[in-house]
Design brief:
12 strands; 3 domains; transmembrane helix; rod-shaped; Heat Shock Protein 90; Sig_transdc_His_kin-like_C; transferase; 5-stranded antiparallel sheet; HATPase_dom; Helix Hairpins; alpha+beta; 5-stranded mixed sheet; Beta-Lactamase; 469 residues
């Protein structure tokens, strides 16, 4: 920024200085030319300086014009002037004026302030060669009155002007560089704080926001940086809670499996268990292994803290729901299913959406079956699950007892289980995975208690035409 300010001001000063110098120089030369032509023309018309007697007797120095040279250049090539006076430069252009008598010559002779440097003007004139009397009209000789004025005063003025312009320009560039550096230091100070904050985060992993003041671009950048830190802190907090909860949840099945295996090993040392007891113990271990496998899969799914699915494809949501229904119906054959599905295309991950819908249906099936369903013998369905899909809104309603009002805000939290759910199998991650899948696909999920029924979960997903891949 310092260099940019210095270069910008330097170029501006250079352009202004050149324009001013050229303008003043042209104007001074124009004024000098006009003055010389007017005086020479008047002198030629009065025929005083073109009279031989007057010309030889009166010099420019005698008139107090020491910087002016006077002379007459006749058409036959004679160069005449006052005695003991320097003649002005008289060459081809001045001879042409004497011969043609209808043109005016203006030129500069010499190019150095140290040497002869004149502005030469030649105007048509009539020269009288007689000394003792006036000339008759036919005695006048066509000639040119030549007036040359020294350019030293003008050159000196222009030289001084150039020095002043250079000095002012240099001071302007230096001032602009100092001001640019001050502005750069002041303007980049918030960026230095941002850089320091980023380095502090990288060095210590502390996600403390930085103070923000003002409303300019750097302030908005600082606010974005603070928002990024907040999002990173939330992500770390979720990961810490996930690890803590996972350690707690994994410990229970692992402890149970280890206990059963220890019992089996001790029984083998004492001669073994009865076949039915041994089979029951092995079945218990297998069930706990299945629970552990499901829990690990759920934890792996939730650990993918990505904002949206990466490998999206065009899916028919009704087909995803039908596939999930086939699986859940097989596990809950004693339920009545009210299913109405309308086609609805979405962009998404078929595996993740299928798992989310399966979790919703499993949850509804689990709570639609009363705990005493095994004792019923009338053959009637143990419960009823309503599954409706219309315009991308999937509603799953069970016939269970519903959700307590105090538990409704927490049903989608990881490992959260209400007091009624703790007596049933599960890890408390199923609905968290449903919310995770909905958010990754740009949708939403919410729960409520349906009038005259149990809990109702509503999953909404956007249409494929409004989604980006």
């Amino acid at each position: 920024m310092t260099l940019l300010a210095a270069v910008a001001v330097g170029l501006a000063v250079a352009f202004v200085s050149i324009a001013a110098y050229v303008t003043v120089r042209q104007q001074m030369y124009q004024n000098l030319d006009d003055s010389l032509r007017d005086r020479a023309t008047q002198a030629a018309q009065q025929r005083q300086l073109t009279d031989q007697a007057v010309l030889q007797a009166v010099s420019a120095e005698a008139l107090g014009l020491s910087d002016i040279l006077l002379g007459v250049y006749t058409a036959d090539g004679q160069q005449l002037g006052a005695k003991k006076s320097t003649l002005p430069p008289m060459e081809g252009p001045e001879l042409a004026v004497a011969e043609q008598q209808d043109i005016v010559s203006t030129r500069t002779v010499g190019a150095s302030m140290e040497g002869d440097h004149y502005r030469v003007v030649a105007v048509p004139a009539q020269y009288c060669p007689q000394v003792s009397r006036e000339c008759y009209p036919d005695e006048y000789i066509p000639s040119a009155l030549v007036v040359a004025q020294s350019l030293k005063p003008i050159d000196r003025t222009l030289h001084n002007m150039g020095i002043v312009l250079w000095a002012v320009g240099l001071l302007g560039v230096i001032g602009a560089a100092i001001a640019g550096n001050a502005i750069a230091v002041s303007g980049l100070r918030p960026l230095q704080r941002l850089s320091g904050a980023a380095e502090h985060v990288a060095r210590t992993s502390e996600l403390k926001p930085i103070p923000v003041s003002g409303s300019d671009e750097i302030s908005r950048l600082a606010m974005s940086f603070n928002a990024m830190l907040a999002a990173l802190a939330r992500s770390q907090d979720r990961q810490r809670r996930l690890i803590g909860d996972a350690g707690h949840e994994l410990r229970t099945p692992l402890t149970s499996i280890r206990t059963n295996l220890d019992l089996l090993a001790q029984a083998d040392k004492r001669g073994g268990l009865r076949p039915e007891d041994r089979q029951q113990l092995l079945d218990d271990v297998r069930a706990q292994m299945d629970e552990l496998t499901t829990l690990i899969g759920d934890l792996t799914e939730l650990a993918r803290d990505t904002p949206q699915v990466r490998n999206a494809e065009l899916l028919e949501l009704s087909n995803v729901v039908e596939d999930a229904l086939i699986k859940v119906r097989r596990r809950a054959p004693n339920l009545e299913w009210d299913v109405k599905l309308a086609p609805f295309p979405v962009w998404g991950d078929e595996r993740l959406l299928g798992r989310a819908v399966t979790n919703l249906l499993d949850n509804a099936a689990k709570y639609s079956v009363p705990e005493d369903a095994a004792t019923r013998s009338d053959g009637a369905p143990a419960g009823r699950v309503r599954v409706h899909l219309q315009d991308g809104v999937l509603q799953v309603t069970d016939s269970g007892p519903g959700i307590a009002e105090a538990d409704l805000p927490h049903v989608f939290e990881r490992f959260y289980r209400s007091s009624e759910a703790r007596s049933r199998p599960g890890s408390g991650l199923g609905l968290a995975i449903v919310k995770h899948a909905a958010e990754q696909h740009g949708g939403m999920i919410y729960a409520r208690n349906a009038p005259g029924a149990g809990a109702q979960f509503t999953l909404w997903l956007p249409h494929a035409a409004t989604q980006t891949r």
